[in-house]
Amino acid sequence: MTSFVPILAAVVPALPLAGALLPLLARTPNGADRLGLAVAFPTAVAALWLAVIALARGGQPALHGHWYLVDGASGVLLAVTGVVGLCSAVVSPAYLRAHRHGSSSAHDSRSWYYSALLLFWAALLAVPIAGNLAVVWLLVEATTAASALLVAFSGVREALEAGWKYLVLTTLGLSVALLGIVVLAVNQARAGRHGLSALDWHAIQGAAHALPASATLVAFVLLLAGLATKIGWAPVHNWLPDAHSEAPAPISAMLSAALLPSVLLVAWRVKETLEPSVGAATTRAVFIGFGLASILVAVPFLWRALPWKRLLAYSSLEHMGVIALGIGFGTPLAIAGVVVHIAGHALAKSLGFYAALPLLQHDPAAASQAPGGVANVSPSTAAAMGVSLVALAGLPPSPLFLSELLILLGGIAAGYALVSAVAVIGLALGFLGLLHALIEGVVGEGTPRPRGLPRTPERSIVALTAILGTALLALAATGLLLPGSSFVETLARGVL
Amino acid sequence: MSSVLVNAMLALALGVIVVRRRSVAIIALGAQSLALSIGALQLSSGRSGGFLLAAFVLLSKAVVLPALLYALMRRTREARLVVAASGPLVRLAGAGALALFAVAVVPPLGLGNTHIEHAAVALVLIGIAIVVARRPAFFQLLGLVVAENGLSLLAVSVPGGLSYVIELGALFDLALVVTVAAAFAQRIHSELGTGDTELLRALRD
């Protein structure tokens, strides 16, 4: 199976990259839908195939070639990005049919929507398997260019604001990260290591102990500060609630479930490669600091009556904080929690965003205010929102209950009892906030369903709720097997 | 790279944060990119052919980027100048203070040339200051390019040169981001009738 890895590693991002041209050839809006899906299915199959190979290797060392690196963490992110990308492509026709585009024809807007989606997906799929820090930076920057256009797709003033803020803030953040990369390159060059290969993950890790500590610390801080902007960690998260709430729902799902953890994996790899020079205490402190700050900043917003997608956006802030904490703790128990959390968050959050499609069709006011009593209007939409909220809140049998428990126990095992205690309080408050949203928004009082609304988005959401809900339960069961596995032990020793 | 060119890049960056007219800012940015490319060409002797190629691409940036920005300016005419949130002297003092603070705080980066290290970090911070201090989307776009020029200054000064693949890739990404940002600036202008991003403040919690 591993002999396929070099080919698959090239095919996975190449399929959507080349396929991005196809929707532009479509003659009708429906043709663009069909061509978009025609590219999405083989892309997802290839991504899942590579993910299965990576995950099936368990605790064996990473596979790496001239330009790629495939390890267990790559497998998790490939699986997540493959599934979420496919689901987003599948639900996109429903969004596009309901969408009124002001400045161009339905045909043109659909064609470039799919092209941008596929380009965004291509870059996202390449990030976890690229074996070089500089190349990863280029790919992350490419995700910004493609997704900023998608964030502003609706063309309304708020979407323009969100897209512009996202573009400017994340580009500036990535400029700071690039400064860190150049500082690393400077010091590699002084040690006689020149060229692109000097920035391979393994080359950096192998040389880190010999690099000057102060310069490496500067590079680490710059890289983490820059990447934090793109991950949406507090306090540099300002773009996140706006972009997630204004983007088309399928794109919001990709932003939250795939983009944020993919960039977080880059930060994780940076930690592992530079730790020999910077020191474990410093790298852990930075991750724990970002993690706690993100959880605590998110909590007050989870208590407020926010529009549905905006609530989900602040939940993303909280969950990226939880993952950062797990990586910061670094124990095998915490890393098992991180793996489950990345996958569980992706499934639950994408379902939540997909539920926004029928929700906004039934109640367009839900775009700007908190929904109320959705179960009275659309039971299937309410079911999707309920499954998503229950999972995100960490209510058993949600896999996020298990992952948060593992991360907190891992923190205590690593000697971070106080940090774990603060995190428990933050997570408990966040849980109550989401529970309140569940009661008020989903099962509270509401207005009856208007007549004559199309059923298509509802049929899609019923199917997605069944599939993603089952996947969440399966993940919770699988997660129980992770602690103590060679897969997790290897990841805890370093994601390379 | 000669210190005259480096100092000129700093002065031109400060010019972008101060000037009122977009056309003058474009000229300042073009001149800054030109100074960078001349410096890169100075360094190219004895280095790989790839580095020379990267230097020529930088030179083309000094020509192509201002042309693109000029075209954007023509397509987004402002009926009147956008009122600045603060005066030019305040902006200049703020950016200067930020740059001096960075110079005082940032330890040696390993280049062996503290002047270039300080100038590069200062340019990145001045770029960020331009984005924060200037309200028009057009000027915020210029801030992104100023920050990128700071990064390029450090990159071309790496002993033996940074891989040209990275430099060309970063330039390609910059071109992509600038194109997307220009499209945004145009849409913001057509939506609001001005490029003043201060009017985009609907999203608050």
Describe the overall structure.
The complex is a heterodimer of chains A (496) and B (205). The two termini of chain A are 20 Å apart. Chain A has helices at 5-19, 29-56, 72-98, 106-126, 133-151, 157-190, 201-208, 213-231, 239-246, 249-278, 280-302, 308-329, 332-362, 374-377, 379-393, 399-413, 417-442, 456-479, 486-493, and strands at residues 63-64, 69-70. In chain A, 76% of the residues lie in helices and 1% in strands. In chain A, helix 6 packs across helix 9 (239-246) and helix 13 (332-362) runs antiparallel to helix 16. The mean pLDDT of chain A is 92. Chain A has a two-stranded antiparallel sheet with strand order 1-2. Chain B has 205 residues and is mostly helical. Chain B has one domain (3-199). Helix content of chain B is 74%, strand content 0%. Chain B contains 7 helices and no strands. The longest helix of chain B is centred in the C-terminal third of the chain and has 29 residues, at 164-192. The model of chain B has no long low-confidence stretch (mean pLDDT 86). At the A-B interface, helix 5, helix 6, helix 8 and helix 9 of A face helix 5, helix 6 and helix 7 of B.
